[in-house]
Amino acid sequence: MAKLIETTPCAGLLPLSIGGVNIHEINLGQVTLVAPYAGGAKATSDALKAAIGVTFPKPNRTNGAGPRAIWCGLDQALIVGGACPDLPQAAVVDHSDAWAVVRIEGAEAEAVLARLVPADLRASVFKRGHTVRTMLVHMNVGITRVGASAFEVMAMRSMAGTLVHDLEQAAKGVAARALI
Amino acid sequence: MRLPCPICGERDRREFYYKGDALALDRPAGDADGGVWDDYLHNRDNLAGVVRELWHHAGGCGAWIVVTRDTVTHEVHGAERVGKAKA
Amino acid sequence: MRVAGKGHTDAAETVHFTFDGQSYAGRKGETLAAALLANGVKLVGRSFKYHRPRGIVTAGSEEPNALVTVGTGGGQDPNVRATTLEIYDGLEVRSQNAWPSLKYDMMSVNDLAAPFLSAGFYYKTFMWPKAFWESLYEPVIRKAAGLGALSGDINDDIYEKAFAHCDLLIIGAGPAGLMAALTAGRAGVDVILADEDSQMGGRLLAETFTVDGQDGADWAADAVSELAAMDNVRLMTRTTITGAYDQGTYGAIEQVGHHVARADAPDLPRECFWRIVAKRAVLCAGALERPIAFPNNDRPGIMMASAVRSYLNRWGVAPGKAVTIFANNDDAHRTAVDLIAAGVKVAGVIDVRADVQAMGDYPLYTSGAVTATKGRLALESITITHAVGTREIRTDCLAMSGGWNPTVHLTCHMNGRPTWDETLLSFVPTDGSIPGLTVAGAAAGHMSTLGALQSGAKGAAAAVADLGVTAKVDVPTAEDDPYRIEACWQVDGKGRKWLDFQNDVHVKDIKLAAQENFRSVEHMKRYTTQGMATDQGKSSNVAALAVLADATGRGIPETGTTTFRPPYVPVSIAAMGAGSQGHGFAPKRLTTSHHASTGRSAPMIEAGLWYRPSYFPAPGEKTWLESCNREVGYVRDAVGVCDVSTLGKIDIQGPDAAAFLDFVYANTFSTLRENRVRYGLMLREDGHVMDDGTTARLGADHYVMTTTTAAAGQVMTHLEWVAQALRPDLDVRFASVTEQWAQFAVAGPRSRALLNTVLDDPITGEDWPFMSCGAVSIGGIEGRLFRISFSGEHAYEIAVPSRYGASLFRLLVAQAEAMEGGAYGMEALNVLRIEKGFITHAEIHGRVTAFDIGMDRMVSRKKDCIGFAASRREGLLDGQRERLVGLRSVNGTDKITAGAHLFVEGADAVSDNDQGYITSVCWSPTLDSHIGLGFVKDGPSRLGEHVVAVDHVRGVTVTCEVCSPVFFDPDGGRVRG
């Protein structure tokens, strides 16, 4: 029988440690995109709550700590870190292999992202558990604050190399400032 | 320039893709007169002042929105999702 | 020379730098201008047009004269202002626009020819003969006139761009800005305080004022310390706000690394271009002192009075041994007092006003004016008139002050016009010019220190009040002297009275413009080039307006101002384009098989953002065509494997999914059976073809659509538009799954045999007919199989979750090679599809209809769809339109080219005779001929006709036969095999 071997999106690219930041790849496990049908939002949220303990998130928010629901666009969320239950009132799409996910953390993480991202990620307005769909240079990304100075960045899997390149360049510039 | 996405909040213009006048929402019936279709497809006024424009939050949530904007002062008066908006 | 006990740089380490090869010592962190003056260097450059010797005029970013070139090679920076460049050990600086040397500049003959080089010279002189433009005018004049130059080498320096957000942006950190920041910072709002200087404090660093009983510079340092300790305040030094844009967005350029040797910080960006978003802003940009236009007022040693005080009080440098001062306001006397206190001789104060008293022990000449100056490379003496006579005064430094212009520039960036203030004799900002921005301090016309502090505090308090925050206004004591000024724009006398030093514009040029009826200020500007140099006339524009107003018999307010546009200071193109070189230019999308392909030495070709293999060279093959022909043979004769993951894949679900597809596709999908695939044609609303691809029905309410690689993004946007805007009544959801699945074409007579070596359960022809699809298992991994073909052969596409893509590709290629097949790339894929007449975006290029490509019968008449109504327009169904055909080189061996146009045999190859054009070509190893696809007027009626393909660009002419676009296996027997 054929044997297929897994490769992660950022294989060979990460981890990196530059100045005040560390960047490493995150494996979210099973990722399911859920988009409730018309009138199905409540039933979907209730079903999620019953099965994995998280409700369907509001825009720009995530819910949960173990299994998480990450808002990812108009009437859509990603259920990560656990199996998604049957959701008869929603479109359900496997996205487990669709994303390159990296965690960037450290005192300068916010400064590094400010080189690349037009959205406001200041700690005073973008708090832990907040998420945003925005752009990282030319790429569409989702960014979630997962700690006081830690962010999770999700980009298209095929763009993993560019994601790492852009983060690395920005981090080098920020790190160099600390030396003068 | 910044636009107020009704879903995401105010965002930088670079996250948005511009389509044109909001009259593109008023799609004629398939059997409508040729002149009606020509107006819908091609004829646009070039207004100085308050306009209603279609923008797509392509670099954000993916919502199509109608932005009410003044082309003279560049003031943005507001935005709402299409479907809830009429042309 | 240095003045003992003056300045704030006593403790700085000594560094060495070179200017035109000569080594000098200076203090680390002081400006190049201060260091040069400390070393007695007064001549620093030659002027733009007349190559006149020029020196340092100002002590800030408005400097018109002292522009230098820093460094050599790719990193060479031209036109750097000596007044803002901070020196460091090893800094190398050169003067500009002089040859062979600054002192003996050959081009200074231009100055002797000055009468011929007046305003409008270019317009009047270089009209004819036309040939002289290229042979004489352009090369010679270009060389003679100009500023610094780039090296022409690639610049490896790092530049950066960044975003910032705040509640309140405070622009400028002089007394008003610092007070505004203290007021807002103490109230707890999120503040950014930006200042273009290396040190915050503004004029407090350059004057001898006290604040709260403290030395002004000390008060500023304390204020900065307090602000630096606040978490809610961000201090940005060396950062100039360059532009005000819509909705509270500001541009800024930060000089990050120009004050550091490259070797000391190789990764340090030189500059960072900021986009700052602020809910409110307070402009505290201060004011700029303006010169007076008196005869020969441009000699090295003549500078602004405020600059003399800056060099003396801040940098501890006296710009001369015997200083004279010429002014129309009290700053003259302030300068004299400071100089005398420092022990520098004041040779005389010339005040244009009649009724003024000396403020110290110096000769005062009232009702005075400077009427002449002497000194070829540096000022030696001046001639003055005054209340009781004329006299000559020996002086090596003349400080001038024509009053102050509030720095209104940013308030004009969104169409605002400043207001003329008759008391200040200046333009002041007009309220509300920039939404959300208020102006404070000298920028708003508050000329005393106390006035600046008070307006800064009030401005900040008002701004944070808009945000719902109450701030306490608590202002320290400071001088509150009135600002006394009398108008004086120009002084009569023999010699040119310079206005715009950087573009060499003088009073007579403005008068000539008025005389020749260029009376509008905008016309005058363009005719004389006043204010069009890199300093944008910061110090000269208002005086030039005053001269124009006088020459045209109007007042200054009626004359109006030119338009101030961003950027306020020059911004490097490198900063604007930061991050966009190399990999930063565009994202690279790599397939899961990328490394396997490059490991086989496959050259990559860009397809949109994707990188795809062109061909896989085999040992001994010398050309791409050899490889391509071999790979075509794999598919026609055995089996080939190709990564097709780049095609867009869109998952579509919902109760109305079928109805939705019927609306976005020209043909019908509601009738498609489950586990079947159908080719679909998508139109734009204007009736032309948008895209094509196959869509599979995976379940009753579940489809997966394929788009072309090139149009995947466009189609997704289109679907979102249709679903949200046009058919919100349809309950359908879609998501891109392009990234989720790695998908490979397995094509050729042995494709099924190959698949059966990797699938857990073998497939048969009966269960998997052409255009079927379904789930399969590979090594226990669930995948999808589609029996579809883009080559005309018996073929499949197999998809697995992307994490297994690299592994499956290697497995499939290995199995193919064991069956006398192998991997194929884009070149072979292209040949295979041209042989079958399958279209790509080379054919559906935006101007073709379903009718043009022979697919009009696919456009369903039974339903409405996007583009249906427009596709019925008469002109789009005209048989004479250019329609898809095949083209075959008549002798088979003549190569035909894409882009060639087609003509009837014997007709001239001109556009009137155009019969169509060629879109795709290839050498077909299967047919042993050059073939192509193209569009010919009424093409389907002209099969068998000979046409001539003419490629004017490549100089190729070939006779072709018009034929069916399906060259190979027209019955389609192989695909069903």
UniProtKB/TrEMBL annotation, chain A:
Source taxon at top rank: Bacteria
UniProt cross-references to InterPro entries, sorted A to Z: TrmE/GcvT-like
Protein name: Sarcosine oxidase, gamma subunit family
The organism of origin for this protein: Pseudooctadecabacter jejudonensis
UniProtKB/TrEMBL annotation, chain B:
Alphabetized InterPro entries for the sequence: SoxD, SoxD_sf
Domain of life, per lineage: Bacteria
Entry's Gene Ontology molecular function annotations: sarcosine oxidase activity
Signal peptide: none
UniProt record, GO biological process: tetrahydrofolate metabolic process
Protein name from the UniProt record: Sarcosine oxidase, delta subunit family
Taxonomic source organism: Pseudooctadecabacter jejudonensis
TrEMBL record, chain C:
UniProt superkingdom: Bacteria
Keywords of the record: Methyltransferase, Oxidoreductase, Transferase
Gene3D superfamilies tied to this protein: 2Fe-2S iron-sulphur cluster binding domain, sarcosine oxidase, alpha subunit, N-terminal domain, FAD/NAD(P)-binding domain, Probable tRNA modification gtpase trme, domain 1
EC top class named in words: transferase
GO molecular function terms attached to this record: aminomethyltransferase activity; methyltransferase activity; sarcosine oxidase activity
The EC number(s) this enzyme carries: 2.1.2.10
Domain named SoxA A3: residues: 494-579
Chain ranges of the Aminomethyltransferase C-terminal domain: 883-969
One Pfam entry name: GCV_T
Domain GCVT N-terminal: 595-863
GO BP terms: methylation; tetrahydrofolate metabolic process
Family as reported in the entry's similarity comment: Belongs to the GcvT family.
Record protein name field: Aminomethyltransferase
Gene source species: Pseudooctadecabacter jejudonensis
Organism lineage: Bacteria, Pseudomonadati, Pseudomonadota, Alphaproteobacteria, Rhodobacterales
Gene that encodes the chain: gcvT_2
